[in-house]
Specification:
The chain is mainly alpha-helical and 282 residues long. The protein has helices at residues 2-26, 36-60, 76-81, 95-125, 164-188, 197-222, 232-235, 237-280; strands spanning 136-137, 146-147.
C-alpha cells in the first residue's frame, strides 16, 4: 500500500512540475495534453490512484465493498467514484473486470512504447536536439539559466537543454516510467497474464487510433502537430500512414513483451510456492 501511495503522489508531482515548467517558462503549455508520453504517464497516475484507494479500502473494509443498499448507485458522485471503489465482480469475464484488465494492460504497455519511441526515434532523428536558442530564461528553480526551445524542428523542442528540472521530468516520463511498469508487473501486481488476448490487443489498437485522432485535435487547437512524423507536409500522407502503422505494431509487440513478463512472474512465484510447500512438509 505504501509503495502504491508513494508512486501515485510522486508521479503526480512529476507531471505537475512538467505542467508548471511548460506553461510558465517554456510557453508550450497548449501542447502538453497531446504528447503520447504525457498521455501514457497520466494513465499510469490514474492506475496508481485507483489501486491505492482499493488497497486502503481493503484495509478499512476487510470483507469487501459496501453493499448496494449503502450507495446511491444512480447519483453523479457515485458514478464518478465507481472506478475508485473495490469492484464487486469476481468473474474474469465480467464487463467491469474486462474493461479494467484492458486499462491495466494499457497502463503497463504504453510506457515501453514511449521509452523506445523517445530514445530510439525522437532523440536521434529530431533536428531540435541539435540547436539551441541563445535566449535564456532566469529561473528560481534552476542553478543555471533555461534556454527557450527553438521553433524549428517540430514541437518537441530541446528538453535536454531546458535545465535541470526539465531534464529530471524528461527522464521520469520517458525512462523511469518503464522502470515503474516493470516494478508493477514483476513485484507489485498479482494480476495474471491476460487470457483474452484479442480483447486486449483490440483495446490497444483502438487506443492508438483514438490517440492519433487526439493529435488531430491538437493540430486544430495549437496550429502544429505534436510530432513532425504526423504532419503530412513533412514527408507526405504515405509517411504519416507508415508512422501510424509502426506505432500500432510497436504497441502490439510491447504488449506481447509484458504478457511474457507476466508469465515469467507467474512461473517464478509458482515455483517458489511449490518449494515452500515441499519444505513445510518436512
Amino acid at each position: 500500500m505504501a509503495v502504491r501511495g508513494f508512486l501515485a503522489v510522486y508521479m503526480t508531482t512529476v507531471l505537475a512540475l512538467d505542467v508548471v515548467f511548460e506553461i510558465v517558462y517554456a510557453g508550450r503549455g497548449r501542447l502538453l495534453p497531446f504528447f503520447i508520453s504525457n498521455v501514457s504517464y497520466a494513465i499510469q497516475i490514474v492506475y496508481y490512484w485507483i489501486t491505492f484507494t482499493w488497497t486502503v479500502q481493503h484495509f478499512l473494509v476487510p470483507h469487501g465493498r459496501a453493499g448496494p443498499e449503502s450507495l446511491d448507485e444512480d447519483g453523479f458522485w457515485s458514478k464518478l467514484t465507481t472506478p475508485f471503489r473495490i469492484p464487486r465482480a469476481t468473474s474474469p469475464r465480467a464487463k467491469n473486470q474486462i474493461l479494467f484488465s484492458i486499462f491495466y494492460t494499457t497502463a503497463v504497455t504504453l510506457p515501453f512504447v514511449v521509452t523506445i519511441g523517445f530514445w530510439l526515434i525522437l532523440v536521434p532523428t529530431s533536428p531540435a536536439f541539435d540547436h539551441v536558442n541563445p535566449e535564456a530564461i532566469p529561473s528560481v528553480f534552476f542553478a543555471t539559466t533555461v534556454p527557450r526551445p527553438p521553433v524549428e524542428g517540430g514541437a518537441e523542442g530541446n528538453p535536454f537543454r531546458d535545465g535541470a528540472l526539465k531534464a529530471f521530468v524528461l527522464i521520469n516520463i520517458n525512462a523511469i516510467n518503464t522502470v515503474i511498469a516493470l516494478l508493477e508487473i514483476l513485484v507489485l501486481s498479482s494480476v495474471r497474464k491476460q487470457k483474452m488476448l484479442h480483447a486486449h490487443i483490440n483495446g490497444l489498437l483502438i487506443f492508438c487510433l483514438v490517440y492519433f485522432a487526439w493529435t488531430g485535435v491538437g493540430r486544430l487547437i495549437t496550429g502544429k502537430y505534436v510530432y513532425k512524423y504526423l504532419d503530412p507536409n513533412y514527408k507526405g500522407w504515405k509517411a504519416v500512414i507508415v508512422a501510424i502503422i509502426n506505432m500500432m505494431a510497436m504497441t502490439v509487440t510491447m504488449f506481447m513483451v509484458q504478457h511474457g513478463l507476466h508469465g515469467f512472474r507467474e512461473n517464478a512465484t509458482a515455483e517458489a510456492e511449490r518449494r515452500f510447500v515441499a519444505e513445510s512438509a518436512y
